[in-house]
Amino acid sequence: MGAWGIKALESDEGLDLVAAIEDLLPRDTLDLGELMARFGEDDFLYDGTVLALAELYIEFLENGSLNYDHEEEERALTQVRVFTADRAALGALLKHLNVIWIDIEGDCEGDLAELWRESSSWDEWRVHVQQLIAKLEARLAKEQ
């Protein structure tokens, strides 16, 4: 699976997303809606990417920064000072996370849920996805 933890950012695909975002730098602001649109256009917005974007956004909310260095300082996510997200972007991200959750609670027909169901970290991963959903729901409620 190319993962060393339960987070999407603890996987090869998660690091691919970080590298793709770094290609957009240097700039000190990221926008969730812009990232979703950019990667959705390239068919890059699959389940792992949705989880990774949620993890990045929540990490920024909780810590005020993103702790991802890069060899070239002007490409490091550590330089991001603002991570914006409007209600539409938060809603779209939450909607996709809920689709993943329905798959988790159902037959696990999606590739990602099927892979995790076969792992020894299935229960921890489920809790992680549930926590992402709860944190985004709380943020969306706060935005009203």
Index terms:
mainly alpha; globular; single chain; 144 residues; two-stranded parallel sheet
Task: Walk me through the structure.
The chain is mostly helical. 59% of the residues lie in helices and 4% in strands. It is built from six helices and two strands, in the order αβααβααα. It has helices at 12-22, 32-41, 47-63, 87-105, 111-117, 122-142; strands at 29-31, 82-84. The longest helix has 21 residues, at 122-142. The model has no long low-confidence stretch (mean pLDDT 86).
Q: Strand arrangement, largest sheet?
A: 1-2
Topology as a string of helices (H) and strands (E): HEHHEHHH
Radius of gyration: 15 Å
Number of discrete helical segments: 6
Q: Report the oligomer.
A: single chain
| Low-confidence sequence ranges | none
Structural class: mainly alpha
Instruction: Report the sheet-strand fraction.
Output: under 5%
Total strands: the figure is 2
In angstroms, what separates the terminal alpha carbons? 39 Å
Instruction: Sketch the major β-sheet.
Output: 2 strands, parallel
Average pLDDT works out at 86
How would you sum up the global shape?
globular
Helix content class: 55-70%
